[in-house]
Specification:
Elements lengths: L12 H11 L4 E3 L6 H5 L7 H5 L1 E2 L2 E2 L1 H9 L13 H11 L7 H14 L10 H12 L6 H7 L2 E5 L9 H8 L5 E3 L13 H15 L6 H17 L4 E6 L9 H12 L6 H22 L2 E6 L1 E2 L4 H7 L7 E2 L5 H13 L5 E6 L5 H10 L9 E3 L9 H14 L19 H19 L8 H20 L2
Parallel strand pairs: 1-4, 4-5, 6-7, 7-10, 10-11
Antiparallel strand pairs: 2-3, 8-9
């Protein structure tokens, strides 16, 4: 039997029934990812498996990079100038050492589901797997759009800056390929006042996109509203914010105007001023989302670009991020309470990177559910370092214990890779296995299997379809 087989990770007959009868063949809604819209629009042809799987310039799979570094692979074989084969060979050498790391499962799921290869990747098989993958990547059906269609993807939401012109999304609208590709609003740079030089340059770019000069905070809000409306015209229905923690300091509008002008003048601002600015900015953005009927997402708890030496050498977002440990409960509750008082609380998904915050964010979400929509506020899927079996089970257990797992909108890829869609299969297998174990232990009623099948279908697909109204 191959390692990846029909009943992979399904530990009993109940789990197998739930997965094969209710989850396996449902479409995918990937409501948060980092695919590059130009690559989708251009229907990218990948040069080889190394470009697709490991590194594309300075972009690539940071999970693999961290594992390779941990296995003693020099940087020249990761983001450096070594050949595609040499980089792939180093990944194949690393794979046996990833046992019990989710990369081992993901790697072999992708080989099986994307390329039909059921061999284990290791030094002895590296060359034949490299050549077989490359031969298939030369075929038309293995171009970018074909890879997305291969997994029954219905909708993809990319992650886009307010200053982006969305030309590639508009191109896809004009040249459809059977999958909706929708932008998602990510305004983090418009809040990043801690670096005045970079911030001023960004504000100038945003002003050009909005066709106006931005010289005040009120002007910033006006420009963002224009861009928000433009994103909506191209189909956007979601926002997303990457935060170290929530912000809900007290402030006056006059203070925010003064802080904004100081930054544009190139002056460094204090931590207190940064906290006030972020508090105002996030509140204003959340009100904008609520008025537009969008879903808002908050990813909380990352500490980024921590290795100063490597940041200087190869730049940001290259695998040197980690789990933060800032408290988020008090500010988060104040933030959502302010929105609720104004009746401006949109549908909201909360993601934590620190596992200590599973229960914190689950209870936070359910403090502000108001009966207007099932699962209006909810704990999101295991994110980033928690996007693995243990993290998924802990997230589901926290949500089950403190909320309604049945209303959960399920999995997303959060990925830059065109072949991360087996992670949806991985999640569905874990979901069905968890429920199957509960059925076997008598914790769920076997007599109500029809509803449990419905629950699996809803979490796998239908909850997201209805929640986002794509």
């Amino acid at each position: 039997m191959p390692f990846i087989h029909d009943d992979f990770m399904l530990s009993n007959d109940y789990a197998r029934e739930l997965y094969h009868d209710s989850a396996e063949n449902l479409p995918i809604i990937d409501y948060h990812c980092h695919l590059v819209p130009q690559q989708i629009a251009d229907n990218i042809r990948f040069r080889d498996i190394t470009q697709l799987w490991i590194v594309d310039g300075h972009a690539g799979d940071h999970y693999k990079w961290r594992a390779m570094r941990g296995n003693g692979v020099p940087e020249e074989y990761i983001t450096g100038e070594r050949s595609s084969w040499e980089k792939f060979e180093k990944w194949a050498e690393t794979i046996p050492y990833t046992l019990r790391n989710p990369l081992y499962h993901w790697t072999h799921l992708e080989l099986s589901r994307v390329f039909g290869i059921d061999k284990l990747l290791k030094p002895e098989t590296a060359r034949e797997i490299f050549e077989e993958c490359n031969a298939k990547l030369a075929l038309p059906q293995y171009r970018g759009q074909g890879l997305i269609r291969k997994f029954g993807v219905e909708t993809v939401c990319t992650t886009d800056d307010p200053a982006d012109d969305l030309r590639y999304h508009r191109h896809i609208l004009e040249h459809p390929f059977g999958v909706k590709v929708i932008p998602a609003w990510r305004p983090d740079k418009a809040m990043a006042i801690e670096d005045p030089v970079s911030y001023k340059a960004y504000i100038e770019r945003l002003g050009e996109a909005a066709d106006m000069e931005i010289s005040s905070y009120s002007g910033l809000k006006e420009a963002l509203k224009k861009r928000h409306d433009f994103f909506a015209s191209v189909g956007c229905k979601l926002s997303d914010h990457g935060l170290d923690t929530f912000y809900a300091a007290d402030y006056k509008e006059s203070e925010i105007e003064a802080i904004f002008k100081s930054v544009l003048e190139g002056k460094k601002v204090s931590d207190e001023e940064i906290a006030k600015f972020r508090s105002a900015f996030l509140l204003d953005q959340a009100v904008m989302d609520a008025e537009a009927g969008w879903v808002q997402q908050f990813h909380v708890g990352a500490i980024r670009n921590n290795n100063a030496k490597m940041f200087k050498a190869i730049g940001p977002d290259t695998g040197y991020d980690a789990i933060h440990d800032l408290p988020c409960a008090a500010a988060g509750h104040r933030f959502f309470s302010r929105l609720a008082e104004q009746d401006k609380l949109a549908k909201t998904i909360l993601y934590n990177l620190n596992p200590k915050d599973n229960e914190v964010l689950a209870t936070m979400a359910y403090t502000f559910n108001d009966g207007t929509y099932p699962g209006k506020m909810q704990l999101g899927a295991g994110w980033w370092f928690l996007d693995q079996e243990d993290g998924m089970r802990k997230q589901m257990n926290a949500l089950s214990s403190l909320g309604l797992l049945s209303r959960f909108v399920g999995m997303l890829t959060d990925s830059r890779s065109f072949i991360s869609y087996p992670r949806h299969e991985y999640f569905r297998r874990i979901l069905c296995d968890q429920l199957g174990r509960d059925l076997a232990d008598g914790k769920l009623p076997v007599s109500d299997m029809n509803f449990i099948h419905k629950m699996v279908k809803d979490i796998s697909y239908f909850n997201a379809k209805n929640y986002f109204d794509f």
